[in-house]
């Protein structure tokens, strides 16, 4: 099994190619003039708890469930299948990446086997993700983000 972490470390901040797919660790999801979005969980096939992190690093904040913050995490096992959110006072992209919990209560992300395949959709993107377990099936969590 290849070490995605080692591959990413050789090309800091750059995508890598693996079996005909472009892999990334995190994505910059453009607002494209929109402020309202929907996160939808499509599939989860992992024994680890899976989540999606949404962050705004520049101007703006994320408003979800009445809470406003620079970032949030939505856990697949406790969030609704679809979660609406808004980017308030923002122009910068939403940074998106997957996260997991190995059962130690700590949120882990962007290391070990973590990688994502991103598919463009008409109003957004689909993310097929690998968590920290060393495999290459990209089905640990599959979700999409759409502009609404």
Provide the spatial order of strands within the biggest beta sheet: 7-6-9-4-14-13-12
H/E element sequence: HEEEEEEEEEEEEEE
| Parts with pLDDT < 50 across at least 5 consecutive residues | none
**Structural class label:** mainly beta
How far apart are the termini?
A: 39 Å
Kindly describe this structure.
Helix content is 5%, strand content 50%. It is mainly beta. It has a single domain, classed as Sandwich (Jelly Rolls), CATH 2.60.120. The strands form 3 sheets. The chain has a 7-stranded antiparallel sheet, with no helix packed on it. Strands 3, 5, 8, 10 and 11 form a 5-stranded antiparallel sheet that branches. A two-stranded antiparallel sheet has the order 1-2.
Topology:
Elements: H1 4-10, E1 16-18, E2 21-23, E3 27-29, E4 36-44, E5 49-55, E6 61-64, E7 67-69, E8 71-75, E9 82-88, E10 94-101, E11 108-109, E12 115-120, E13 124-130, E14 141-147
